[in-house]
Design brief:
The protein is α+β, with helices and mostly antiparallel strands and about 160 residues long. It has one domain: 50s Ribosomal Protein L5, Chain: A, CATH 3.30.1440. Helix content is about 35%, strand content about 30%. It has five helices and six strands; from the N terminus they run βαββααββαβα. A six-stranded antiparallel β-sheet has the order 2-3-1-6-5-4. Strand 4 and strand 5 form a beta hairpin. The longest helix is centred in the middle third of the chain and has 14 residues. The chain is globular and about 50 Å long. The mean pLDDT is about 90.
Length: about 160
């Protein structure tokens, strides 16, 4: 008699989230951090402070690399739902269309870039220019692009 039990698929989960931005010499780093924190729900923003690392650019100009990392999966899920609530339908459609380009299957991470200037105005606008805040979501239990789309849809990040 053959085993009739179905293999149960594990649900896609988040493991961590990282928000990264560059603060150039011509910018106020406090404003850059503010734009980064605007990706977080208001009630938790004060719990996070960007980790700062100083580097030199190609021409020797100072660049500050700022990073916020969240490793609590429940908190990451609530942050993603908050972001989804702030995205308009056009941005969600763009995320659906470009989801394959934004996902690295080897690293199991999904990356979205937001306009730094728009975030300062609390507007969540996707951007692929240089002046961005990068959101990277690390995922678990993901096998293929269909799993990714189901997860993004469940989080209401795509339509």
């Amino acid at each position: 008699m053959a085993n009739s039990r179905k293999t149960e698929r594990r649900k896609v989960e988040v493991s961590s989230l990282k928000i990264t931005a560059f603060c150039h010499a011509t910018e106020e780093c406090s404003r850059v951090e503010e734009s980064m924190k605007n990706l977080l729900p208001e009630d938790i923003r004060s719990q996070f402070t960007a980790v700062v690392r100083s580097e030199r650019g190609y021409y020797g100009n100072p660049i500050t690399i700022m990073t916020l990392e969240v490793k609590n999966s429940v908190l990451v899920s609530s942050i993603l739902k908050y972001i989804a609530s702030r995205l308009d339908e056009t941005e969600k459609r763009i995320l659906r269309i470009t989801s394959r380009l934004r996902y690295d299957p080897g690293e199991k991470k999904f990356t979205v870039r937001f306009s730094k200037q728009s975030l300062l105005r609390s507007k969540f606008q996707l951007s692929d220019t240089d002046d961005i805040v990068k959101l990277t979501v690390h995922l678990k239990n993901i096998k293929n692009h269909k799993d990714l789309e189901e997860f993004l849809s469940e989080m209401n990040l795509i339509t």
